[in-house]
Amino acid sequence: MININNLTFGYSKRHILYDALDLELKEGNIYGLLGENGAGKSTLLMLIAGLKKPFDGTVNVGGFFADNSSPEFLQEVFFIPEEMTFPNVTIDQYQGVLAPFYPKFNKSTFYEMLTEFGLNGQLKMNNMSYGQKKKALISLGLASNTRLLLMDEPTNGLDIPSKSQFRKMVAKHMSDDRVFLISTHQVRDLESLIDPIVIVDNGKVVFNETLENISDKLLFTTAEKVENSDVIYTENGVAEDKVVAFNHSGIPSRINLELLFNAVLTEKEKMNQALPTHFIK
Ligand SMILES: Nc1ncnc2c1ncn2[C@@H]1O[C@H](COP(=O)(O)OP(=O)(O)OP(=O)(O)O)[C@@H](O)[C@H]1O
Questions:
Q1: pLDDT for 79-99, tens place per residue?
Q2: Does 261 lie in the same domain as 141?
Q3: Domain limits at 219?
Q4: Cα 134 to ligand 1 centroid, rounded to whole Å
Q5: Are 120 and 91 within 8 A, CB to CB?
Q6: Are residues 63 and 87 located together in one domain of the fold?
């Protein structure tokens, strides 16, 4: 559904961030986009949303090119940025202005989510806390029913109960014809929700893999439970050393996304041996 081809972009011609990037995102998935600070996650979301223009290459969402900003493209894409600015209006008024841009917007779903998040339509967008603004925007995004929903650090600012509500809402509103792409550092907030996992590093997608394949090929365990020669990456713990190892048995283990992320960034060669097709360029 989303095809990024040969995309090149930088904030200046001398500092290229993405160089000939290719990436395909398929409908029916909630992609988790991970990467170190400054790796380019927010920039990639903005490029996909058509808010930045590539130097070269294309971003195609369901047949429409992002940088054309055609109505057909814009009505199918909703972007929840990390930093939000709103006019001095109530949630009701904001919804009233925004909804007509999204033909599949579901008003009753929106108000259900708003209530679930403990908000109401009379609240002024500007006067709400950061977390409350996030909740309002998440509700708008999910209710928009766009084919593509981009979320930049959506759980930042959410309190503990709201994080679990967020997970449930996202899972409920995912459908076979939608793609959700969630950039996050808070992998624990999104464990059991995001799948596949996409990792960007140095202007490249260095990992793009489903949880099924990850647990099929990799074992997440403790050092004493595996042969030394099978260990790919070790993280020293207080009680025990946690490891990512080759999974020869095919028996799945519980994936530790933090461990996976560190293994991908530090043990590229061995990770490439375990999941050979997944280092794109
Ligand atoms: N407006 C801008 N002008 C110039 N450089 C920028 C601008 N925005 C981002 N950058 C640079 O582009 C790179 C990627 O930034 P980006 O915000 O996309 O990273 P990120 O992965 O989202 O980071 P973080 O995890 O810290 O939010 C960084 O080196 C950053 O300094």
A1: 999 998 899 999 999 999 999
A2: no
A3: 210-278
A4: 21
A5: yes
A6: yes
